[in-house]
Amino acid sequence: MNRMKMPIGAFLRLALAVVLIGLADGHAALAGPGARPNVTVEAVLPGCRSLVATQGIPTSAEAGFCSGLIDGLLYLGEQLPPDFCYAVPVDAPRVRIAAAIVEEIEAVYPSVKEHHFRALALEVLQYRWPCHYGYMDSALRLTCVYRFNE
User: Fold this and answer.
1) Residues 6+ apart with CB under 8 A from 49
2) Nearest to residue 84, comparing CAs of 126, 134, 116, 117?
3) How far apart are CA 46 and CA 30, in angstroms?
4) Which of 98, 99, 103, 89 has the alpha carbon at shortest distance from 131?
5) What residues does 135 pair with on adjacent strands?
6) Is residue 149 part of a domain?
7) What is the C-alpha separation between 129 and 86, in angstroms, rounded?
């Protein structure tokens, strides 16, 4: 049987992504054993709105949760397969990323308020900063498309 092995670097990136996403749920431990955070749009979006209103400075636990969730998703983006990945520029201000997520989700809020926030945030990141793979000089290159509304 020909079995493909995952390179150690890819394995470590995947493990770190899982840990980061798990840490975003970490504040549930404060609520008691077995408690899970409410990660619906209705529960998370107010913290993200607060994060945007304070120019990216988390001033509440909810804003900090949103900020951590976004940071975890940003790391995860380029680790995903080409048809799911996104590539937010490293120099993009976090407040602009949070604002883009808030803007896109608020446009459809009534129909998605009970949906999972992370799933919708992933869709926004994929829409605003999709990955494009192409060949250049015989090497696979990743390029990004920026869809900031300026």
Assistant:
1) 102
2) 126
3) 20
4) 89
5) 140
6) no
7) 5
- What single DSSP character describes residue 3? -
Sign of CA dihedral 17, 21, 22, 23: positive
pLDDT in tens, 3-61: 445 565 655 565 555 545 554 444 443 455 667 888 999 999 999 999 999 999 999 99
Residue 150: inside a domain, yes or no?
A: no
Helix spans in 1-150 (H)? 8-24, 41-53, 61-77, 94-106, 109-112, 117-128
Is 1 within the bounds of a domain?
A: no
Domain range enclosing 123 = 8-144
32 phi, psi to nearest 5 deg? 125, 170
| CB-based contact 70:45 (threshold 8 Å) | no
Name the token pair of 9. Answer: 């670097």
Question: What is the number of domains present in the chain?
Answer: 1
Q: What is the per-residue pLDDT across 75-89, written as a single tens digit (0 to 9) for each?
A: 888 788 877 888 898
